[in-house]
Design goal:
421 residues, mainly alpha, two-stranded antiparallel ribbon, 73% helix, elongated
């Protein structure tokens, strides 16, 4: 159960990033402490805002790729339809598959991007996101003053020669994910104490009554740091229910709003494609996963999750405003210029700007098609209304199917006579 340790992370790539983020988190807590408002909950919120703001350039790049992808989608789908009926048993299957991939690459190249264009930003963000969770989940490992609350208790505990042989204490440790072998490590003991709720603190002082003085001295500072809006951030909502249950509910709601907003702003109208259906599934599953994780993990993770979703909604609004002012044709031209620099280095011919479709024209054509469709529906509706009005002056009986058919026929005949005149 060592993976539950709250000491600093040593994961590959994640560990070094977590150390850097831990310095930021510790600085925020120290800053709040200067004003007498040292709070882990408030520190997590400020920490989230700062990190998300620093990641804003990556969010903009991701959004640019998404915008281009929605423009490229019709051309990419044409290529897919062209090769949709490939026979896997055919000897030319692999050859045709390669041709399909080449044509797909040509479409991406025409817009100065690549199929992996959106993945690069995600790959950069992944270690940062994992590191964020490590810092928030392992608070004593990164905030020195929080760790200091527990050190006197741990030191006094380790001065008891037989503390590791106490069966009740071993059981209490195992219930919190710390095995008996880990009890000799002061870091693991701090991990254990950080996980304690009020009931477990009472049990701990019952097992070691000599430590009651140390616990009584440290608990006010621990509670001041850990408690946020009446919730213990070191304890899971599942263990404290009200008002802790509000955290997973708000986490799921804000995650849903964030996903819904991103789905709407992506502008994808191709809901029948595989990627579109996958995104819809993810937009349903992610809020549900948020509720589950934030119900079972420490409340501090839930506070981060909520703050992250709220900040993402605000960032999405900012990015959308920014994207509205961008000329897509200019963006494509810049992408081609960058792509040409790479192509020249590889000894390849540069792409020609005139080979790129006019993106604005594509969008205008889409809007025109939608407008025509709306006008057609409006004309049909008006025609039915006028035919009904005309027929009401005739002597045909109402309510019969044949009479309704005759109604439209009479109106059409009348219209044709007018046109002949």
């Amino acid at each position: 159960m060592d993976f539950l340790s709250l000491t600093q992370s040593n994961w590959f790539l994640v560990g070094p990033v977590a150390k850097v983020l831990g310095v930021v988190m510790n600085g925020i807590y120290e800053f709040l402490d200067m004003f007498g408002i040292a709070s882990i909950g408030l520190a997590i919120i400020l920490f989230t805002i700062i990190i998300k703001a620093l990641m804003l350039p990556l969010s903009i790049k991701q959004q640019k790729f998404t915008k281009l992808n929605s423009i490229m989608a019709p051309e990419l789908q044409q290529v897919q339809k062209k090769y949709a009926n490939l026979d896997k048993s055919s000897p030319k299957y692999n050859e045709m598959l390669l041709k399909q991939n080449e044509e797909m690459k040509e479409v991406y190249a025409k817009y100065g991007t690549s199929p992996t264009g959106g993945c690069v930003q995600m790959l950069i963000q992944m270690p940062i996101l994992f590191a964020l969770y490590q810092v928030i989940y392992k608070i004593p490992g990164y905030i020195a003053k929080v760790r200091a609350f527990y050190e006197p208790i741990v030191e006094a505990l380790q001065n008891i020669p037989t503390y590791m042989d106490n069966a009740d204490f071993v059981t209490l440790a195992q219930q919190n994910g710390i095995n008996a072998a880990g009890l000799s490590d002061s870091n693991k003991l701090i991990d254990l104490l950080y996980n304690f709720d009020k009931t477990e603190w009472a049990k701990f002082t019952e097992i070691f009554p000599n430590l009651n003085e140390y616990v009584a001295k440290a608990l006010p500072s621990i509670e001041k740091a850990n408690y946020f809006l009446g919730m213990d951030l070191a304890t899971a909502p599942a263990q404290q229910l009200w008002p802790g249950v509000l955290i997973p509910i708000l986490a799921g709601l804000t995650q849903w709003l964030s996903s819904k907003m991103m789905q709407t702003d992506n502008g994808s109208k191709n809901s029948d494609d595989t990627m579109g259906s996958t995104m819809k599934t993810m937009n349903i599953m992610m809020p549900l996963m948020s509720v589950f994780f934030c119900f079972t993990f420490s409340s501090g993770i839930g506070v981060y999750w909520i703050a992250s979703s709220v900040v993402m909604i605000l960032i999405q609004m900012i990015v959308n405003k920014y994207m509205e002012r961008i000329d897509i044709n200019q963006m494509v031209e810049k992408n081609i210029e960058k792509a040409n620099v790479k192509r020249v280095k590889k000894g390849q011919k540069p792409l020609k700007a005139k080979a790129v479709m006019n993106v604005r024209t594509i969008e205008e054509e889409r809007e025109l098609e939608e407008k025509k469709e709306a006008e057609l529906k409006e004309r049909v509706t008006k025609q039915v209304e006028k035919s009904t009005e005309y027929y009401s002056t005739t002597q045909k009986k109402k309510g019969k199917l044949a009479s309704k058919a005759g109604m439209v026929q009479q109106y059409n005949e009348k219209s044709e006579k007018k046109n002949r005149k």
